[in-house]
Automatic annotation (TrEMBL):
InterPro entries assigned: DHFR-like_dom_sf, RibDG_C
Single GO term (MF): 5-amino-6-(5-phosphoribosylamino)uracil reductase activity
Any single biological process term in GO: riboflavin biosynthetic process
Top-level taxon of origin: Bacteria
SUPFAM superfamilies, sorted: Dihydrofolate reductase-like (SSF53597)
Ranges of residues in domain Bacterial bifunctional deaminase-reductase C-terminal: 112-184
The protein's name in its UniProt record: Dihydrofolate reductase
Length: 193
């Protein structure tokens, strides 16, 4: 089985979006370089960010998101983002009316069931869990193997927290990856068991 990774870009004070669900400059690093990150040509990063991010993206088999993110993105029009094979949506509600049942999206009730479904779909590839409330719940359930964050030099002051509403201490190992890109610091921590 592949590992479960909690991931997002984040402000230095720990927020993945402002109070209005806007990311502000959190993704500016994705357009602030000269090395194309994907085939679209829209994403261009520094060489250091490319060397760190591209192999990670290529290893992702399934992404787990909450219904809130799914609704904010309009379900990415039924096409998983960044070339990912499947998206598992944690929700208590059914798919939206008119949703194409053939789209590679799976609607699952509860984080444990969502991670189990994502692992089944990903095989030996990475299960990426979007940071925020669902990510915090997956961490609290003891299902996260690794935390990755792209720390952007901005202070939000308030908004949507990287770890959601986690209310207990969780120890991480020392960072085993620290990569400086343009306007971003890429960090990776293993979760202490």
């Amino acid at each position: 089985m592949g590992k479960v990774v909690l991931y997002s870009s984040v402000s230095v004070d720990g927020f993945i979006a402002d109070e209005h669900d806007q990311p502000g400059p959190l993704f500016d690093w994705l357009t602030g370089g000269d090395v194309p990150l994907d085939d679209s040509g829209a994403l261009k990063v520094s060489q250091a960010s490319y060397d760190h991010t591209r192999p990670y993206w290529d290893a992702i088999g399934t992404t787990v998101v909450g219904r809130h993110v799914f609704d904010l993105t309009d379900g990415w029009d039924g096409k998983p983002p960044s070339g990912i094979d499947h998206v598992v949506v944690v929700t208590h509600r059914p798919p939206p009316e008119g949703w194409d049942p053939a789209a590679p999206f799976h609607f699952v009730d509860g984080v444990e069931a969502a991670v189990a479904k994502a692992r089944e779909l990903a095989g030996d590839r990475i299960v990426e869990v979007a940071a925020g409330d669902v990510g915090g719940q997956v961490l609290a359930a003891g299902l996260v193997d690794e935390v990755r964050m792209d720390v952007v030099p901005v202070v939000f002051g308030s908004g949507k927290r990287f770890f959601g509403s986690v209310d207990a201490q969780h120890l991480l190992e020392d960072p085993d990856v620290v990569v400086r890109g343009n306007r971003v610091l890429h960090l990776r921590y293993r979760v202490r068991r």
